[in-house]
Amino acid sequence: MHEKVIEGILNGDRRMVARAISLIENQDPNKNKILSEIYPHTGKAYVVGITGAPGAGKSSLVDRYLETLRKQGLTVGVIAVDPTSPFTGGAILGDRIRMQEHALDKDIFIRSMGTRGSLGGLSRATKEAVQVLDAAGKDVIVIETVGVGQSEVDIIKYADSTLVVMTPAGGDSVQTIKAGIMEIADIFIVNKSDLAGADRTVSEIGMMLDLSENNKQWRPPVVRTVTLDSSGIDDMYEAIEKHRTFLMESGNIEKVRKERIRRDVLDLIEYQIKNTVWDQVSGSDEFEELVNQIMSRENDPYSAAAQVLQGVNLDQCKVF
């Protein structure tokens, strides 16, 4: 059955692309085989990440950006990550509602994904879904993160260009400077810039950039947008294209993608080892005894962890 899915992905079959992403999310036994087979056909799409605080207007920006990309004749894949309830395990997946006018466009594929407990604003399956859309021939892949605030920095592991979306009066200047999320931006977007305080927000970002030592090669531009009338969307598109040109001409795109591959391999190794340790240890009498010893302060977590690792048989680590 997976051969049919692989063939469908490579032919750009929307139904098979959707099925493949569902298999990935559900940890289907054929998932790794599919990803392995399509991997030689990836690496052509340009990945744009859009992140920022909840309510900043990320989904509306993506919606307008899609219109601009389609005017350029480009095919697009969108992965919109929504928060998963810690109580029910469900997710609203509302981004497809906001982008419904593109639903009938055969050259746009939109997929909402729940975080399913992953931190950092992204689903664990996000990068694998990107590979599917890449192999399916999409020119540009847009990832919209869940919007969790300052800690939402995982997007830099996936995107070639990262846009941080802010709004006027989104925080004072000290908050702006200290926020970790500000350090990952390739482009700053001040959305809803028709509101009072937009000039101050732009000024604060400029001050932060003047103090930063991270933009010697590339200084992130600050773009004002208003999604209600699409003002500034063309400027946003041009800023992304300029950053793309910079990455290509400077050779940084190769460094970024090589580091991404290195991280992916290590993440997969870590994931498999963690699962192996969990399978061998969780629920065992020996492990429960260690927990009891720690509870009574007869042992400590560090010594217990070392003891567990000494007894783990990594030869049982599952092969992909």
UniProtKB/TrEMBL annotation:
Task: Give the Pfam families listed for this entry.
Answer: MeaB
Keyword check for Heme, yes or no. no
Q: Which UniProt keywords apply?
A: Chaperone, GTP-binding, Hydrolase, Nucleotide-binding
Q: Quote one Gene Ontology molecular function term.
A: GTP binding
Q: Which family does it belong to?
A: Belongs to the SIMIBI class G3E GTPase family. ArgK/MeaB subfamily.
Output this protein's name. Answer: LAO/AO transport system ATPase
Respond yes or no to whether keyword Magnesium is given for this record: no
